[in-house]
């Protein structure tokens, strides 16, 4: 009797971390499977540990190898951690992409802002619609989140149905878009759900996430009470929040001026898709300086401390068109993403130094999460009643807490996995059956590098301990033709005794060369290696750090 096809799942990003989401589902046997990819997102570089790296993406080696069996890529929503890697990685895959109208429009606008974007076609599916992608039937089920048209995906196969939640929360009164479709999720549960692959971001937080309507009421009150200029910063993609700010400005008889390209792009796409009506007026940057202080509200990018975004430039008092003064107000209608605390703190300090009043979610309800807390997770489980639950979209603690909650709620099987684990969902006993290649790609300028690349590894070391450059000219007889050249970059000028490090290194280079036997002096590679070792050892002795050392030998 023929063995039935297996339904498998593997995260290639987004598990054990927040960001860089990429999940794949496979249908077939170990010799051949059809694959469906869900989301293709980025994480953001950390200047402290990854200097010069702006974006981090999932390693797609496995999907490149399987590209002939990759039926398509489905997008749950248009946040960067779910679709930000498409422009860079899709050319390696070339598969069809499926998304709803807003996600497709925002992606198109993003491509238009690139210098030479690849032509990437997207098939638009209506919210609530279904599409057959190879052996997978995918239904887009509306869920509330902090961007319009977020969807859970019901992935139906001959083996069973998987609910891939994407990012979601339960908000009966979202300002923009549809609430989470409880009725449809209950119907899925009644029909039988093999596995729920679910968002774990807020699994450590009790209760429920407040509604966007409550945030809108707070913003309206704060803007109405403000005396001077007001600036509000939020995630550009949070169209509901943008609408709340525009409504608050209108109620306070203020004009909204949009500051920042990302914000301009989202406002334009949201208007085109019908999420912002004509009552909400958005003015261009050039009118800011012509409006009285009590008649203007600046809607700014930069809520995460991004150094090139509008708010950072305002805080540093070097924005060419937007200034704030003593008595003005800035509202951070956002949560600081872990890792960005230092950058955001720097901006807040800059604003406070200028005499600006800064309001954050520590003071007032000016932000709510777009992810479910524990009571909402329990609701989802009770509606869907899965046979198996797999926590994703979270760090180790979030995944563990989601798994504990699922077990306590009575889910028959709960399985935690890591990026690269291939999980058999059914038929039969679920479990991890293989390990797929998984890792990270780093976007360095316009080039993609893997984690072992020289640029990534050496730049980290250079940032920590600098670099020593040594140039030596040798005669064919193995004698120094001239004095060596020494250049120390990123190091102290003097040692603890006040002696110049350049002079110390120069003496070490000369003594090392003269101390080598003549045959080694005639071998450029052997000479360079001896000098490199001696210079690093000397600097370690004088300074306590071992820099990168580059030695160039020229024979004249």
> What structural class is derived from the secondary structure elements?
alpha/beta
Strand order of the largest sheet: 8-7-6-3-2-1-22-23
Shape: globular
Mean model confidence by pLDDT: 93
Number of strands: 28
Gyration radius, in Å: 28 Å
Beta-strand percentage?
Answer: 15-25%
Uncertain runs: none
The separation of the N and C termini measures 78 Å
How many helices does DSSP assign?
A: 16
Largest sheet: 8 strands, mixed
* Helix residue percentage: 25-40%
InterPro entries: Metallo-B-lactamas, RibonucZ/Hydroxyglut_hydro, RMMBL, RNase_J, RNase_J_2, RNase_J_b_CASP, RNase_J_C
Keywords: Cytoplasm, Exonuclease, Hydrolase, Metal-binding, Nuclease, RNA-binding, Zinc
Domain Metallo-beta-lactamase: 21-219
Protein name: Ribonuclease J
Question: How are the secondary structure elements laid out?
Answer:
Blueprint (H helix, E strand, L loop, with lengths): L5 E8 L8 E7 L4 E6 L4 E2 L10 E4 L2 H5 L4 E5 L5 H4 L2 H4 L7 E3 L1 H12 L9 E3 L5 E4 L2 E8 L6 E7 L4 E4 L17 H10 L3 E5 L12 H14 L4 E4 L5 H13 L3 E5 L1 H12 L9 E2 L12 E5 L9 H6 L13 E4 L8 H13 L3 E3 L14 H11 L3 E5 L3 H14 L3 E2 L6 E6 L4 E5 L4 E5 L2 E4 L3 H12 L1 E8 L10 E5 L11 H15 L2 H4 L2 H20 L4 E8 L1
Parallel strand pairs: 3-6, 6-7, 7-8, 12-13, 13-20, 14-17, 14-18, 15-16, 15-17, 18-19, 20-21, 26-28
Antiparallel strand pairs: 1-2, 1-22, 2-3, 4-5, 5-24, 9-10, 10-11, 11-12, 22-23, 24-25, 26-27
Helix pairs in contact: 4-8, 5-11, 6-7, 11-12, 14-16
